[in-house]
Amino acid sequence: MSQAWMRISIALFVVATFCAERLPACSCVAAPRASSCADLKPIGPSFVGTVIDIENPPNERDVADQSGLSRYRFRIDEDISGFEEKEVDIYSGRGGGDCSYHFRMGESYFVAPFKGTAALMALYGAEPGKLMAGICTATQPAASATALLKELRARKRGGGATIVGVLRTEPGPDDYNHRIPDATVELRTANTTLSTQTDAGGVYQFYGVPAGTYQFAVKVPADFQVAADKAAVPPSITIANQPCYAKDIYTAQTVPTGSP
């Protein structure tokens, strides 16, 4: 190997080692959806915006320099919480394994930024306090945030109650094996029907529910069999002056005929 190629090889090894030490591999832990009033948290800083400028864009090639931060200039199209200005700069890393979010020019996003701590910003050689975005937060394309935005807008408007709970196959101690995901939960009156879906953990949430008495109704997935003589009748709930109501509901599952 020539001395020139040896110097290049050593330089690439140093850069790769330096980047690996600075930017560890990304690992995200999803936060569970709130299933009780005590779990509900205030709406954090967030907005819907369009990328109008990118400085120092990411370079995801294997041997590319991925150090430093990308700066994304957003036009704020809708303030969800804490963004009354017309434009804002959001920063993120430039690597492929550092949990950074790589926004695209001209596209619309729901952004839930956080302030970079001194320890985090030291990894990027930047001053603390910048508004950062990453893939482990609720940040996502606006087109995929429809359900989330519906909930956040209802919470922002206020003027009604929040109802949260878990849909399970039976009452008693909580057991994830008894939770029912992907089911439709409805609140019904003579003139109104409100509808939502349970998530992967069987959690449902309603926001901005007006005062009144509602009857719950449940529509389970097609592969979830319920026997008429065992099905629990969903309860009713009266909404008055409380800001939040927690209500778990149940419906019994049966094993199909002929199953082992």
Q: In words, what does this structure look like?
A:
It is a single chain. The chain has 260 residues and is an alpha+beta fold. The protein has a five-stranded antiparallel β-sheet with strand order 3-2-1-4-7, covered by helices on one side. Helices cover 15% and strands 32% of the residues. It has two domains: 12-147, OB fold (Dihydrolipoamide Acetyltransferase, E2P) (Beta Barrel), CATH 2.40.50; 158-250, Sandwich (Immunoglobulin-like). Strand 2 and strand 3 (87-93) form a beta hairpin. The protein is elongated and about 65 Å long. The N and C termini lie far apart (67 Å).
Q: How many distinct beta strands?
A: 15
Order of helices and strands: HEEEEEHEEHEEEEEEEE
Strand arrangement, major sheet = 3-2-1-4-7
What multimeric state do the chains show?
A: single chain
- Radius of gyration equals 24 Å
Major β-sheet annotation: 5 strands, antiparallel
The CATH architecture of the largest domain comes to Beta Barrel
Distance between the termini: 67 Å
The top-level CATH class of the largest domain is Mainly Beta
